[in-house]
Design a protein that fits this description.
Layout: E1 5-10, H1 18-32, E2 36-41, H2 59-70, E3 73-79, H3 87-94, E4 111-118, H4 121-137, E5 141-150, H5 164-184
Length: 200
């Protein structure tokens, strides 16, 4: 049976984005577990403002929709802008209205893991809640773990996280997306990477 497929969407255009680094860390863990991961991040998500009356689709939108249609699970990562997700990511999620006529429609049947990045924990929690609400509104299965990553968190180029508590939470988030996706497919499992238990 084919590997679990994950679509990882990141909603920041900033160079050195912490949310993009956190998303890459999750993608790296999913790949180590045997999943196929398609990252659609930054400029890949630059789409025209969603207009329900527009018939044509640009190449970037077609790539996004293709990644989501193929996915068993989805990762959503966003910086926190004024207590919510970035407009870049929200606009991309609005474009998923094109999946309404699919069977299954929207993100139905896909596990969805959400993370936000914030300087302020309250604002980050609000953005995380918005991501989870959007995922559920699109009929996705938002996994129990959600992560607010502190904005000053450092990541290595290979996807390592300097803060063990944040790293542990991102690992749990990723594993839950993989495990729920495997359950949905009837038990075909990508093996999660074994990690030490840390007190949190």
């Amino acid at each position: 049976m084919r590997p679990i497929r994950i679509a990882a969407l990141g909603g920041s255009l900033r160079s050195g984005s912490v949310s993009a680094a956190a998303l890459r860390a999750c993608a790296a863990r999913a790949r180590r577990a045997g999943a196929e991961v398609t990252v659609v991040c930054g400029t890949d998500l630059v789409l025209p403002p969603y207009d329900p009356q527009t018939a044509g689709r640009c190449a970037a939108e077609l790539r996004l929709l293709s990644a989501l249609r193929a996915a068993d699970g989805v990762l959503l990562a966003s910086p926190t802008y004024h207590g919510g997700m970035s407009g870049l990511l929200k606009n991309a999620l609005d474009h998923t209205e094109a999946l309404a006529g699919d069977v299954p429609s929207y993100l139905e049947g896909r596990s969805v893991g959400c993370l936000s990045v914030a300087w302020n924990e309250v604002a980050g929690a609000s953005a995380l809640a918005a991501l989870r609400t959007c995922a559920q509104s699109l009929r996705g299965w938002a996994v129990p773990m959600g992560v607010v990553v502190p904005a000053g968190t450092e990541f290595t180029a290979s996807g390592g996280c300097a803060d063990p508590r944040t790293a542990r939470r991102l690992d749990i988030l990723t594993d839950q997306v993989l495990e729920f996706a495997a359950l949905r497919r009837g038990g075909a499992s990508a093996e999660p990477v074994q990690i030490p238990q840390l007190s949190v």
